From TrEMBL:
Substrate binds at S235, Q257, H260, H326, D359, E413, H418. Its EC number is 1.1.1.23. The keyword Chloroplast does not apply. Keywords: Metal-binding, NAD, Oxidoreductase, Zinc. It comes from Sphingomonas glacialis. Signal peptide: none annotated. CDD domains: Histidinol_dh. The gene is hisD. Belongs to the histidinol dehydrogenase family. This is Histidinol dehydrogenase. GO terms for cellular component: cytosol. It holds the Pfam family Histidinol_dh.
Length: 433
């Protein structure tokens, strides 16, 4: 199980109190062929293929994929008062945090040499696609996380796709979050439609949002002609804890994520054997009464793990190896310990910082890297919706400074055209002088 096995340097410092039974990365291999077929078909047949796959996979046949303005408003009107208030509370928190983040992404212009002006500008992506998973439950926060940052960033158009059998409240969430267009298309066919465009769905420049293994694989395959935010697969949560950890809290948080999907990966990394054993018992106890135990229990059985580490150094090293999507820190000095960790999607410092708050409404984005991607990237944020594009312009002093070196370098590389492009400007400048 390559995705969960420890590096050789740590193998003598770890003991599995509960080992995972399956590898959720290797389990993705079976979807590749099917996704390849779906993408090719949608690219060639457009709406007709999308309609066929919607019928095949979702059991829904639609004459029109786009949700009309009247149906959008009807979905909002059907929300009960408290659900709408809670949704708008979450939207405002996400908007507030995204706006603060955007304020840190500043244009730049410097003059490193006299007359040499270098800079970058911040350009919103023109059209983005937001995939909104339907899943087993109506995840009302899902559209907020993918749509609101795009509107804050200033994208011209945010196109949302969600499965046709998704709860109507999800349509309302897309509308309230500011989606310019909403389409009832799910799965790999939605990714194909947004990537290639159809008669109904406009081609987008970048696709955002998490999904199941089929959505994830589709995003991987279309990357290139269109951008993607990241490969955000089934959810993950790990907790790093010392002897001060509370097994009831830890078990509760592990199962809260495990109920997302039968492929969710959850785990505890600890230096305390008593806590490891108590947490194992507590998970089994809570599963007996959990309404979503059918899903959470399968996830726990197949992908759950509890790892006992020899010391703090091994605990940190193993956590960084896992690079969990959600990483909770339950140690005596949680803030101090958190500073020693470097690989994760989002960090939850102290036992009060449950993943559920970020999942729902505090304002940080819940679309995060999984399957070890936290080693090289962070999660979805407002910066994902803009491009940082450089520019330069030169005055006479700068040409005199850089042209001779550029000519010599081009000459040494055997690139005569490059040398001439630098030389002609210097020659024209000298002729005027």
């Amino acid at each position: 199980m390559a995705s969960v096995s420890a590096p050789k340097s740590l193998q003598g410092s770890l003991e599995y109190v509960k080992a995972p039974q399956r590898d959720n990365i290797g389990d993705n291999s079976q979807v590749i062929e099917l996704v390849t077929t779906v993408l090719k078909d949608v690219r060639e047949r457009g709406d007709a293929a999308v309609r066929d796959y919607s019928q095949k996979f979702d059991g829904v046949s639609l004459d029109q994929f786009e949700v009309s303005p009247a149906d959008r408003q009807h979905a909002v009107d059907q929300l009960d008062k408290q659900t709408r208030a809670d949704t708008e509370f979450a939207i405002e928190n996400v908007r507030r945090f995204a706006t603060a983040q955007l304020g840190t992404i500043l244009p730049l212009e410097v003059e490193p040499l006299p007359g040499l002006h270098l800079g970058h500008t911040v350009i919103p992506i023109q059209r983005v696609g937001a995939y909104v998973p339907g899943g087993r439950f109506p995840l009302l926060s899902a559209p907020i996380m993918t749509i609101v940052p795009g509107k804050v960033a200033g994208c011209d158009e945010v196109v949302a796709c969600l499965p046709p059998n998704a709860h109507k409240a999800m349509v309302a969430g897309c509308h309230l979050s500011g989606a310019d267009r909403i389409f009832l298309i799910g799965g790999a066919q939605a990714i194909a439609a947004m990537a290639y465009g159809t008669d109904s769905v406009p081609a987008v420049d970048k696709i955002m949002g998490p999904g199941n293994a089929f959505v994830n694989e589709a995003k991987r395959q279309v990357f290139g002609p269109v951008g993607i935010d990241q490969l955000a697969g089934p959810s993950e949560i790990f907790v790093v804890a010392d002897s001060t950890g509370n097994p009831e809290l830890i078990a509760t948080d592990l199962l809260a994520q495990a109920e997302h999907d039968v492929r969710t990966r959850v785990g505890l990394i600890t230096t305390d054997k008593a806590l490891a054993e108590a947490t194992l018992k507590e998970v089994e106890r809570q599963l007996r009464d959990l309404a979503t135990a059918e899903i959470a229990g399968e996830s726990w059985k197949n992908y759950g793990e509890i790892v006992l580490c020899a010391d703090d150094a091994a605990m940190i090293a193993y956590s960084d190896h896992v690079a969990a999507e959600h990483l909770q820190v339950h140690t005596a000095d949680a803030h101090g310990f958190a500073k020693k960790l470097r690989n994760y999607g989002s960090l939850f410092v102290g036992e009060n910082a449950s993943v559920v708050y970020s999942d729902k409404n505090v304002g940080t984005n819940h679309t995060l890297p999984t399957m070890g991607a936290g080693k090289y990237t962070g999660g979805l944020w407002v910066g994902s919706y803009v491009k940082i594009a450089t520019y330069q312009w030169l005055e006479s002093d700068a040409i005199r400074a850089v042209a001779p070196a550029a000519m010599r370098q081009s000459d040494s590389e055997g690139l005569e055209g490059h040398r001439k492009a630098a030389a002609i400007r210097l020659e024209r400048l000298n002729a005027v002088a």
